[in-house]
Amino acid sequence: MKRQVRAAWRLVRVLVHLVTGLGTVALRFPRMPESEQHARVQAWSRQMLVHAGITLDVRGTPAPHGPVLLVANHLSWLDITVMHAARHCRFISKSDVKGWPLVGTLATAAGTLYLERSSRRDAVRMVRLMQEALARREVLAVFPEGTTADGAALLPFHANLLQAAVAADAPVQPVGLCFVERATGAPTTAPNYVGDDTLVGSLWRTLTADALVAVVHYGPLQQAQGRDRRAWADDLRHAVDALRRP
Fold first, then answer.
1. For residue 93, what are the β-bridge partners?
2. Which of 2, 48, 89, 217 is the most buried (most CB within 10 A)?
3. Ramachandran region, residue 41 (left: φ > 0; alpha: ψ -120 to 50; beta: rest)
4. Cis peptide leading into 246, omega within 30 of 0?
5. Is 140 helix (H, G, I), strand (E, B) or coil?
């Protein structure tokens, strides 16, 4: 019973924080310089984790500035919030997210670029937009598995979006994500959002869990160094696989 009450209180705080974020986006973002928007997104994301009972553990050194493309494994609906909390970046996300209630508005305000995955033509457009963003020295982020996985093993990395880093001669930074129990340090699947999981079910599992830690592990920056995007994707997958382990 105590756990359920605690989860309900966390849920209330999360919902209030969501609404507060929407208010900030609607009323204050239009008057803010971009650098302040980025700082607000990071601060909001960190506070969201606190409300959900999650501690952030950043390992390694995130790139201090762009141009850089972050590539990470994908476990949960929380991953974007976790990565924003560790270091602000612009995500490349599936176009469906734009239409999600509340979440879509916040994602758009955070600078998300949307990709229609079923369209090869749209992939070409996205590579061009990413290349332009990297030329402006921005920090971008992708989940090259293309979907969430259960964490047991990494899915193959899709190489298409790496073409932007190849064309812009920009570095890529591998990032490993995992969730562990704060008390024991053991990996947990509570926040996972995979297969038949529902968003509501995954959210409630996360809120009812004992205190969790979200680990974000940054690896060394890599340059293509003559590798094509497929060879580079394979090498990055191995790097992320090592980084995602607690």
1. 114
2. 89
3. alpha
4. no
5. strand
Q: Where are the domains of the chain?
A: 2-243
What gap in Å lies between CA 62 and CA 2, rounded to an integer?
38
pLDDT tens string, the chain, 246 residues long: the values are 788 999 999 999 999 999 999 999 888 998 999 999 999 999 999 999 999 999 999 999 999 999 999 999 999 989 999 999 999 999 988 777 777 777 778 888 888 888 877 667 778 888 899 999 999 999 999 999 988 877 788 999 989 889 999 999 999 999 999 999 999 999 999 998 887 788 888 889 999 999 999 999 999 999 999 999 999 999 999 999 999 998
Pairwise CA distance, residues 165 & 173, whole Å: 11
List of residues 6+ apart from 45 with CB closer than 8 A: 81, 82, 84, 85
3-state helix, strand, coil in the chain (%, to 5): 45, 20, 35
Interhelix angle 34-51/79-86, rounded to 10 degrees, is 120
Q: Which of 177, 94, 92, 74 is CA-nearest to residue 141?
A: 92
Which residue, chain included where needed, has tokens 């024991």? 184
User: Is 179 within 8 Å of 213 (Cβ atoms)?
Assistant: yes
Sign of CA dihedral 29, 32, 34, 39: negative
Residues comprising the chain, all counted: 246
**How far apart are alpha carbons 64 and 87 in whole angstroms?**
9
